[in-house]
């Protein structure tokens, strides 16, 4: 059970992040491009559109560059855990942040992330701002997929936390705080660009460091959690953003003697 003080602190951090999202996304709403004509009520979305988007978002998370991100995260996690670097690094960072770790622990908790997603969607509906409502839907989907995938992996791996706490469902690998935080940052960054995304990525990184400081996770848990959340956020954002906004394109070519791929940049 949470104390009333802890619940208040969680709510405050979540509220501040929602206000940040709402103000910045509202200011950039005219830059988003054509918005999808989604239903403007809760019931239709949660019972009709949400299940379909969860399936599509999951599939997108394991395609193209997202699969490469997951592969890199997996390779890094394996290298750290198998070489003993995890334990060495953990011994050096444990307790570094002291009480300041609470900021990351609260900001990256499932309670806070769920509140941010639902509040963003609600604010968008209430204010009739399609951009903010669309962002809220993307965040809801990204956090659901991330939570499910993180839990499945936790139960499958069953790694003991550095401090020995937790059980099979709350095991160390990967970090749920980190995967959820990076899912939020990746979704926003993919839909609106680095202006909004970079601050959220920085905070997500702080969440990961705070979990290590609190001796709840190894660096490998954090790295894979970051890769998982990033891939899922990108996969879900692809459903909601205007794909024509992409400046990078990979185009196959052939000159009769050989074939290859060309990376193009438009501006």
Written account of the structure:
This protein is mostly helical and 267 residues long. Helices cover 69% and strands 5% of the residues. The protein has a two-stranded antiparallel sheet with strand order 1-2. The chain starts with a helix and ends with a strand. The N terminus and C terminus are likely disordered.
Task: Provide tags for this entry.
267 residues; mainly alpha; two-stranded antiparallel sheet; 10 helices; 69% helix; 5% strand; disordered N terminus; disordered C terminus
Secondary-structure content class? mainly alpha
Contiguous uncertain segments of 5+ residues:
1-8, 27-39, 243-253, 261-267
Question: What is the 3D form?
Answer: globular
H/E element order: HHHHHHHHHHEE
Describe the main β-sheet briefly.
Answer: 2 strands, antiparallel
Number of helices: 10
Task: Work out the helicity level.
Answer: 55-70%
Number of strands: 2
Strand content: 5-15%
Distance between the termini: 52 Å
Strand arrangement across the biggest beta sheet? 1-2
Rg is: 19 Å
What's the overall average pLDDT, rounded? 82
């Amino acid at each position: 059970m949470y104390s009333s003080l802890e619940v208040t602190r969680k709510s405050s951090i979540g509220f501040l992040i929602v206000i940040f999202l709402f103000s910045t996304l509202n200011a950039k709403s005219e830059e988003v491009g054509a918005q999808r004509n989604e239903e403007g009520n809760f019931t239709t979305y949660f019972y009709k559109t949400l299940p379909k988007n969860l399936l599509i978002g999951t599939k997108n998370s394991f395609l193209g560059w997202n699969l490469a991100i997951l592969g890199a995260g997996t390779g890094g996690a394996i290298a750290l855990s198998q070489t003993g670097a995890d334990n060495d690094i953990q011994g050096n960072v444990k307790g570094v942040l002291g009480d300041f770790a609470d900021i990351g622990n609260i900001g990256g908790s499932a309670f806070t992330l769920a509140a941010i997603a639902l509040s963003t969607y609600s604010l968008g509906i209430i204010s009739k701002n399609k951009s903010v409502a669309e962002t809220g839907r993307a965040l809801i989907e990204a956090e659901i997929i991330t939570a499910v995938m993180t839990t499945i992996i936790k139960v499958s791996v069953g790694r003991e936390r550095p401090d020995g706490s937790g059980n099979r469902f709350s095991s160390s690998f990967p970090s749920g705080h980190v995967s959820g935080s990076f899912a939020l940052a990746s979704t926003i960054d993919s839909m609106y660009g680095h202006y909004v995304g970079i601050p959220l990525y920085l905070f997500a990184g702080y969440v990961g460091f705070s979990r290590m400081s609190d001796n709840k996770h190894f660096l490998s848990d954090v790295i894979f959690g970051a890769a998982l959340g990033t891939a899922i956020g990108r996969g879900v954002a692809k459903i909601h953003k205007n794909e024509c906004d992409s400046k990078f394109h990979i185009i196959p070519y052939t000159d009769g003697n050989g074939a290859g791929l060309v990376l193009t940049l438009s501006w």
